[in-house]
Amino acid sequence: MKKVIYLLVLCMVLGMAGCGTNQENKEPVSGNVSVETENKENDDVVQNEQIADTGSYPPCVMVDGVIYKDTGYVASMPGCGTMDGEIVSTVAGTELPSENNQSNFGSGYHYQRSSEGQLIVVIDDERIIFRDIEKDDTSIPIEVINFNAKVKEIIWSPSLKYIGSYAFYGCSLIKLERELDLPQSLNYIGANAFYGCKRFTSVSFPDSIIKIDSHAFANCESLKWVYIPDTIKEIGSGVFDGCTSLKEIKIPKGSHTKFEKLLPFSVDKFVEV
Q1: pLDDT of 29 over the 50 cut
Q2: Measured CA distances, 118 to 70, 98, 171, 224 (Å)
Q3: Residue 44 CB-density burial (10 A; 0-12 exposed, 13-18 middle, 19+ buried)
């Protein structure tokens, strides 16, 4: 079933979130990402915005003295472990919860702690992502589109600077049977960001790129060539591991020595252009 998730990115996507693991904090950046997906388990995205003129609040819940606000995103990652608690009391939607295990949208819902500053609340069999209301963070939660989403198309914001770890892990980018066209503003690609994406055949990194983290493009089996500018400062380990079709790593003329240090196990693929 098709749907479009419009994602506003004001800071970077955080690192991989397992059950109760912490995430790395990053400086905020701004940008938009529009992703069209096919995902039977993510039929609806809950849209919740605070409406200033009526004084109402988005769905919120208090756990351990922290108020978490609905992000409007549904987690695609399957749940693991047991639930950490249950919402047992409620207040009106025009109020914020003031007691632990209390919400302003109803009771009887179970929740599970996720990555740092986030909570997963199960509502109508969907895992809704809530985030600490005090955090100025509207990044794409890592749980949204990795693992089982089938991303058909990505429309990048021209100001996007950061793609976080595991952001598109295992996604079948079914419309990208060509070059992965990255935004010209992009500075950082997180670990495993495009791991296992099997459709795109080439990647040309923009001159703005500074760091490509470990295994960012590992097991991209259709990837035939990449271009990396000499603005790059750091490339993580195994960034192209398992890319069985990769024949050329195109680099600027005169940068061979630099890339020998950055990609010591791929020297035989270097082509200066």
Answers
A1: no
A2: 10, 18, 23, 38
A3: exposed
Residue type, 83: M
Give CA–CA dist 209/156, Å, rounded: 15
138 closest CA partner among 250, 264, 29 = 29
Within-domain flag for 33: yes
Least confident range of 6-15, 79-88, 152-161? 6-15
Report the distance separating Cα 249 and Cα 267, nearest Å.
9
Number of structural domains (the chain) is 1
In a domain, 111, yes or no: yes
Find where tokens 């990449």 sit. 226
The pLDDT assigned to 42 comes to 42
CB atoms within 10 A of CB 166: 25
Residue 33 — very low, low, confident or very high, per pLDDT cuts 50/70/90?
Answer: low
- For residue 131, the one-letter residue type is R
pTM of the model: 0.55
Strand partners, 122: 110, 127
- Residue 217 and residue 237 in contact, taking contact as beta carbons nearer than 8 Å: no
Domain range spanning residue 115?
2-132
Q: Determine the pLDDT at residue 55.
A: 62
* pLDDT at residue 3 tops 50: no
Counting every residue written for the chain, the total comes to 273
